Structure formats: C-alpha cells, structure tokens
C-alpha cells in the first residue's frame, strides 16, 4: 500500500511539473499545435482531432522539462513509450476539459488572461513583456491576439476547475497515523541467495543452431539511412539574439516545406553548407545526435523515408534545431549464424542459469512454507543464510539487495510465530528466498509538522484518484475515438 502511495505521489509530482510548465511552450510548439496538420489523426474528442504530430510535439516538450527537472527520464520513473502515451492522453484530457468548461459556468476575466500572458517568458525581451515580440510570435504562428487570448482563457478555466476538484480531497487523522505507522515499520529477516551460474561451454552447438533458426528475425542488422542535414545553432547563426534565431529557424522550416525535395534552398537562405551523416540505424543505437529519439523518429517517418520529403524542424533544445532528409537507405539484413553464435550461447547460458536458480529457490520456498528450517536447507544446498534486523522501507545497503528489502515488506506478517516466506529475482539473475521473522510497527505520535507532511502526501494521492475518476467518467460520457 505504501509503495503504491509513494509511486502515486512521485508520478503526480512528475506530471504536475509537466502541467505547470507546458503553457509557456504553446507558441514554440508551432502553428500545427493549434490548427492541426497533415499528420495522421490518432484520436478525436467530440469532433476535435488530435494528430500524431501534436502528440510527438507534446512528448518532446514534456521530455525536455522532465529531463531538466529530474536529470533523465529514468529518474522521473517514465520511459519513452509511457511519455508518448501520456502525451496523447494528456491532449485528450485537455480536449475533454475544454469541452466541459466551455459548457459550464466558470468564468475568467480579461485581467487574469492579460496577467498570464505577461508572465510567459516566451514573450519577454530584456526581462519584461514585449508587445512587439508578442505580436511577432503570434503572427509567425498564424494567430490573432483574440485567438491566443481565448486559448489562454480556456487553459485558465481548466486550471480553475482542476483546483476545485483536487482541493476537495479530505484526509482524516486516522489516515495520517496509519501511513506513518506503515512508513516507520521495521522488519527482521533471514534470507539466502541462489546464484545463477552461467556456463556457456555447456550450451551445445545444436541448441545454438535451434535457437537461431527459431528466432532468426531477432538477429538482423537494422535498417539504416544516411542523412543530408542542416544543424542550426544560435551561437553560429544569431549569437545573443534569440528572436533573430527564432525567425531564421521559422524561415528555414518554411522554405524546406515549400521545397520538400531538397534542403539546398534552406541552406542557401541560412548561408551554410549541407552536411551528411554516417549510417544511422533505425533501432536508435547510434551515439550522440543520431541516437536521439526525436531525430530517429523523424528520419524513419513515412514522409521522410517513404516519400523522400524534408523533415519538419526538429527542436533539440534551447538554441539548437535540425532539418534533415534521407540521402541513402540500407535495408535490414539478416545476420549469419557465425556472426551471432557467441551472443546466442551467452544468452542461452544466462537463461539456463536464471531458470536453475529460480527452480531451486522456489523449491526451497515451498519446503520452508511446509515447516523446514532455512538453515538446514541452506546447509544441504551449500548456501549461506544471511540476517538483517531493523530493516525499514528506505534501507539502501550493499549488504542487502533492494529487491530483498522490497520483497520483505510485501510479505504478510508472521502468524503464531510462523515466519512468512517468499522469493524474488535479484540483480544478475540470482534468486533470493526471504523469510520475515518479526515486524515492529512505527511510532504514530506525530508532531504538527510531520502530521502536515503526511497529510499533504495523502491529499495529493486522494486528489489524483478523484481526478482520474473524473477523467474516466468524462471519457465514457463524451465521444472519444482512438485511431492509433
């Protein structure tokens, strides 16, 4: 339960960051963000279409922000496929909410809209709001001030509605006390680890051959492309002038769109030479620029690869962008058995080692659950029993694997002096058998500051639960169609 709460709080914080910082990127996202584009429609909400390009742009924005906040996606607990799915679902939720608040009685005044626009850094020059830059950026995105202000007004209405829903979550003193007791709980355990011994020499040539034939599609060199490209750096094109750099990138992107069969016109506009990449694999295994997901996705998109068009402008970060097209293609090719035999032999040896470790570990679990002593079984199998006292949920130790601690806190309490037992895989494919012998609940005597801390965490979780229930209800009531 507590792990679920912690995960929910972490996830809530991560996506709250995305929600809070997404609005300043509205204009940077480009005209297609507002008016649709030629991309494939992936969803439709009450007749409003959401395209693949809109989802990709939102995912890129969120990735940049999460990486700035957490360092990398892994630290945020988010992978790329999750990011794309959440970007799509986020756009669907926004469309649902816009329909809801438009039909409702919520109101946002002109002063609040003006204040929000003036706070957006994208419209600032010299640290203050610039009307000239505001009008310039809106014009570049083919928006009138009235259109953009209406968009901001809707976003403020959504925020107002969100606060109304999430602010209604109630947390009782009993909830905070119970959470504190669980979080401060300590456990005493015994455990042993069955090693996943690998023996590649024991894997026969016949087994390697059979595995290769059964899984030949896995052993191919990925499709590759060689790219013609223009890399745009503000430091080179418009040092210390972000407005000028924005204008240049927009002009170059427009020229590349208008002349889709060549990047030469865009290069001439910028006064730069075209560059050429080495072979770029489709699996994203290249290092540096050519391994970045947004670059690989653009290079292997239908428009660029199949139809031979120039890519859209790829935003790579502040003051850094890219235009590309395919110069040459190398199709995926099967790898011969001799090229992958050693890899297959190691893979089979690892799998056999893991399987043998798990089988023995699960056998020991069953014997202990039936009343056998862990120490006697360990002696029989030539294993070592290890003990740890006073473990808490946050224990990080080289001596006790994290997976063992996690498993120990997922097992039930011992009953009538009978320890509870369970198993888990640990790093390297080893298998640990864990026995909980004692549980001590944490102190529930909370100070005011501590109580408010727990209350705030629980309120976030409860608010998230209420919000998800609301979104689920709206999706059922309104016409939402997924196309991809």
Roughly how many Å is the radius of gyration? 29 Å
Mean pLDDT across every amino acid position: 82
The coarse overall form would be flat
Percentage of residues assigned to helices: 40-55%
Note the total helix count.
18
- The H-level CATH homologous superfamily of the largest domain, spelled out, is Porin chaperone SurA, peptide-binding domain
Structural class: alpha+beta
**CATH class type of the largest domain:** Mainly Alpha
Main location: membrane
InterPro entries: PPIase_PpiC (IPR000297), PpiD_chaperone (IPR052029), Trigger_fact/SurA_dom_sf (IPR027304)
Family: Belongs to the PpiD chaperone family.
Keywords: Cell membrane, Chaperone, Membrane, Transmembrane, Transmembrane helix
Describe the structure.
- This protein is α+β, with helices and mostly antiparallel strands and 484 residues long.
- The chain folds into three domains: 2-171 and 453-482, Orthogonal Bundle (Triger factor/SurA peptide-binding fold); 186-197 and 343-440; 220-334, Chitinase A, domain 3 (Roll).
- It is built from 18 helices and 15 strands.
- Strands 12-5-14-13 form a four-stranded antiparallel β-sheet. A four-stranded antiparallel β-sheet has the order 8-7-10-9. A three-stranded antiparallel β-sheet has the order 2-1-15.
- A hairpin with a 2-residue loop joins β1 and β2.
- α1 (2-22) packs across α3, α3 (52-70) crosses α4 (80-103) and α4 (80-103) crosses α7.
- The chain starts with a helix and ends with a strand.
- Mean pLDDT is 82; it is low at 1-38.
- Belongs to the PpiD chaperone family.
- Keywords: Cell membrane, Chaperone, Membrane, Transmembrane, Transmembrane helix.
- Residues 203-342 form the PpiC domain.
């Amino acid at each position: 339960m507590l792990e679920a709460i912690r995960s929910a709080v972490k996830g809530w914080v991560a996506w709250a960051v995305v929600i809070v910082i997404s609005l300043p990127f509205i204009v940077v996202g480009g005209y297609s963000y507002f008016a649709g584009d030629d991309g494939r429609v992936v969803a439709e909400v009450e007749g409003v279409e959401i395209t693949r390009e809109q989802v990709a742009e939102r995912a890129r924005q969120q990735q940049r922000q999460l990486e700035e906040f957490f360092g990398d996606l892994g630290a945020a607990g988010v992978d790329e496929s999750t990011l794309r799915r959440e970007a799509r679902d986020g756009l669907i939720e926004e469309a649902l909410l816009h329909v809801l608040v438009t039909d409702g009685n919520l109101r946002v005044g002109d002063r609040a809209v003006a204040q929000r626009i003036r706070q957006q850094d994208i419209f600032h020059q010299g640290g203050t709001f610039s009307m000239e830059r505001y009008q310039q950026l809106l014009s570049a995105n083919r928006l009138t001030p009235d259109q953009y202000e209406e968009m901001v007004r809707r976003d403020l209405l959504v925020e107002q509605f969100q606060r109304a829903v999430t602010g209604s979550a109630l947390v009782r003193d009993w909830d905070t006390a119970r959470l504190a007791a669980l979080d401060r709980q300590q456990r005493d355990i015994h455990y042993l680890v069955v090693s996943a011994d690998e023996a590649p020499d024991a894997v026969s040539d016949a087994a390697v051959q059979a595995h290769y034939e059964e899984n030949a599609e896995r052993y191919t060199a990925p499709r590759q492309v060689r790219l013609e490209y223009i890399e745009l750096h503000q430091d080179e094109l418009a040092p210390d002038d972000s407005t000028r750099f924005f204008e240049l990138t927009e002009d170059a992107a427009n020229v590349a769109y208008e002349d889709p069969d060549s990047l030469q016109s865009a290069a001439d506009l910028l006064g730069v030479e075209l560059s050429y990449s080495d072979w770029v694999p489709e699996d994203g295994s290249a290092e540096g620029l050519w391994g970045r997901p947004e670059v690989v996705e653009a290079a292997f998109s239908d428009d660029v690869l199949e139809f031979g068009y120039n890519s859209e402008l790829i935003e790579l970060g502040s003051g850094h962008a890219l235009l590309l097209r395919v110069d040459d293609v190398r199709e995926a090719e099967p790898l011969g058995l001799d090229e992958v035999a050693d890899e297959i032999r190691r893979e089979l040896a690892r799998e056999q080692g893991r399987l043998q470790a798990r089988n023995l570990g699960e056998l020991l679990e069953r014997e202990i659950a039936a009343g056998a002593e862990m120490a006697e079984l360990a002696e029989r199998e030539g294993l070592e029993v290890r003990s740890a006292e006073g473990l808490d949920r946050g224990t990080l130790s080289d001596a006790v694997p994290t997976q063992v601690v996690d498993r120990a806190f997922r097992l039930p309490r011992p009953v009538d002096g009978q320890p509870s037992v369970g198993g888990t895989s640990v790093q390297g494919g080893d298998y640990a058998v864990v026995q909980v012998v004692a549980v001590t609940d944490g102190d529930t005597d909370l100070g005011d500051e501590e109580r408010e801390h727990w209350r705030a965490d629980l309120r976030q979780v409860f608010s998230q639960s209420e919000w998800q229930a609301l979104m689920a209800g709206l999706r059922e009531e309104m016409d939402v169609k997924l196309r991809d």
